[in-house]
Structures are given as C-alpha cells and as structure tokens.
Specification:
- The protein is 42% helix and 18% strand.
- The protein is of the alpha/beta class.
- The protein is globular, with a radius of gyration of 20 Å.
- The structure holds 5'-O-[(R)-(carboxyoxy)(hydroxy)phosphoryl]adenosine (KG4) and zinc ion.
C-alpha cells in the first residue's frame, strides 16, 4: 500500500510517500527565513508560503519515489491542531488528489503523528505506553492504553516547552527559531552555573508550567546587567535547558509509573534537543524503562509521521469524509 502524507500545520510544508512501511520520499520546504524578522511564525505568511511550496514539493516527492499520482492508494493529511489557514492549504491539496484519483482520505491529528514518528519503518510496540509530546505548541503526557486511543494525563498550564525555548533564546539574542540555537549554545555551558527553579517538579501531578522559569531567566539577565556583569550565554542556556529537562524527565518517569507501563515514547520538535534525548535515555533506562526516540529528522514537523499514522488507520478501514474542516484546537482521539 502506498500512502501519500501531507503536513502544513505550521511553518513547514512537508510531503512524504510511504510504501508498505518503507519511506520512499520525505521532503520538507522550510520557511523560517520568512518569519525570522518577526521573531515568530506569522500565520498569513505561512499559509501563502505553503500555497507556493506545496505543488512543486509534491512533484519532487513523486519523482523521488519514482511513482505517479495514479499509484497512490491513500492520502493522509494533518487536519489539526495548527494554524487554520496553513492547515487548509494541505487539506485542499489532499482533497483534490483524493477526488481526482478516487483513493481514500484520512485526516490525521498532528500530535498523534508526532509520536508515530517512532513507527516509521518499524512496528509499534505493544500498548499500554506513555507518550511525551513536546513541541512549539504543546507539552503533554499521554497514556495510550491501546493503539489509536489517548488519555491526556498531564499538560502545560501555560507555555509549551518549545515556546519557552524560543522565548529564552530570543532574550539571549540567539534568533529564531530559538530551540536549536539554544541547544547549540548550551553545549559550551555549565548546566550548574545558575540555579533556576524546576517549576511544578514536586507538584504531585503530571502537569507542567514554564512561566516561573521564564521569569527567573529574565530576572537573572536584568540583575546581571544592572550589576554591570557580562552574562555568559552558554552558561545561561545550559542552566535553563537543564531546568526544563529535569522536569520533563521526572514527570515522564512518574507518568510511566502511574500508568503502569515500562514503555515511553517521545515526540515533537523539542525531542530534537540533545540534552533531553541524552537524559531521557539515561534516566529512563536507569528507572527500568524502554525509551523510544524518533530519528532526529522526524522530531520536528514532517509528513512521514503523518503518512505513518494515516497508513495504519487506512489499513484498519478508517476513512475521512471530504467535507472535514480544519480544526486548530483538535484534541487527541479518545
Ligand atoms: O513539533 P515542531 O516542529 O512544531 C510544532 O508542532 O510546534 O516543534 C517546534 C519547536 C520549536 O519551538 C523549536 O524551537 C523546538 O521545537 N525545537 C527545539 C530543538 N529543535 C526544535 N527545542 C530545543 N532544542 C532543539 N534542538
Ligand atoms: Zn509539530
């Protein structure tokens, strides 16, 4: 079975082709350069850029996979959560292709896609498991009692982890998007240099908060500047990153215990973070957990993960009606 995946929920235009569990094409057109000077993704600009990028990218993906549209058996497309104007571009293309070729359509939840990035070219492990989903828009711990079913057991009360990375990176003058730049800067820093708070680490539940940590970084920078001291960007980056990572790691291990599983899956752009990968692998294993981490290139937004969920849902007979609307606040399917 050949599944075409399309992802346009934020600022990456992405097309992938998955043929019987083998990834035959996985292309991404980035548009960071268009948003950089605004310090964040501008929805209208993102939607327009998707319109320009999508058709040529689709043509290149088919070429990569050495197939034409007529060989496709199903189309999977992100239908939410995300920016509504951006989602609509991918959805219109997906609907047009299914209408023209007569193959089925499958609308995919972007967050389900993020942890299915672990299953591209491999089989999912036996549920139950816990998924930690950390991206620019979401931070959540999800109990997956059976494949395709979700119970959110914890989430952020304010900013998403990626958002916190981006905001602190901006404060430190590291540009946009901030996560990767902060990750790189932290490599030369001392994670123990500044003792930042670990918000809600001892809250007894599985929820997160980023605001206290963000404020602590801002206060520290202001105090150092007022005292006429030079701030060390690497030390600050490493200390901030360690604080976020500490909380993510301890809550993820706690979630696995609460749910009664030994399998933990990670997904989302922040899982590209070097320190988070390292710590979850080491601390998770020390806690007796099996931690699955997607390949680096499948952590940030891509269409391979969307094709992967879509193919699995199509294979069990699911279909999405052509009149489905984009849902910017789509919840994980119960
Ligand atoms: O999943 P994603 O590509 O898009 C959303 O669904 O939001 O996640 C993007 C987020 C951004 O906030 C970005 O700064 C963050 O993931 N990110 C990172 C790293 N790479 C991307 N954060 C920390 N360290 C990284 N290496
Ligand atoms: Zn994402």
């Amino acid at each position: 079975m050949i599944t075409l995946g399309i992802e346009t929920s934020c600022d990456e235009t992405a097309v992938a082709i998955l043929a019987d569990g083998a990834l035959r094409a996985n292309l991404i057109a980035r548009q960071e350069h268009l948003h950089e000077r605004y310090g964040g993704v501008v929805p209208e600009i993102a939607a327009r850029a998707h319109v320009e990028a999508l058709n040529p990218l689709l043509a290149r993906a088919l070429e990569h996979a050495s197939i034409d549209l007529g060989s496709i058996d199903g189309v999977a497309v992100t239908v939410g959560p995300g920016l509504v104007g951006a989602l609509l571009v991918g959805m219109a293309a997906a609907k047009a292709i299914t209408l023209a070729t007569g193959v089925p359509l499958l609308g995919v939840n972007h967050l389900e896609g993020h942890y299915w990035a672990n299953f591209v070219e491999t089989e999912p492990p036996e549920p139950p498991f816990v998924a930690l989903i950390v991206s620019g828009g979401h931070t959540m711990l999800v109990h997956v009692p059976a494949l395709f079913h979700h119970v959110v057991v914890g989430q952020t009360l304010d900013d998403a982890a990626g958002e916190a990375f981006d905001k602190v990176a901006r404060l430190l003058g590291l540009g946009f998007p901030g996560g990767p730049a902060l990750d790189a800067a932290a490599k030369d820093g001392d994670p123990g240099a500044v003792a930042f708070p670990r918000p809600m680490e001892a809250s007894g539940d599985l929820d997160f908060s980023m605001s206290g940590l963000k404020t602590a970084v801002l206060r520290h920078v202001r105090a150092e500047q007022a005292a006429g001291r030079e701030i060390s960007v690497p030390d600050l980056a490493a200390s901030f990153q360690e604080a976020i990572v500490d909380v993510q790691v301890s809550k993820t291990i706690a979630a696995a215990k609460q749910v009664g599983t030994e399998t933990v899956l990670l997904g989302g752009g922040v899982v590209a973070n070097t320190r988070l990968r390292e710590r979850l692998r080491a601390d998770g294993e020390a806690a007796g957990l099996r931690v699955l981490i997607p390949p680096l290139e499948l952590c940030t937004d891509n269409a391979a993960m969307i094709a992967c969920v879509g193919a699995a849902r199509l294979a069990r007979g699911e279909r999405t009606a052509l009149d489905i609307a984009a849902d910017p606040n789509l919840q994980l399917p119960a």
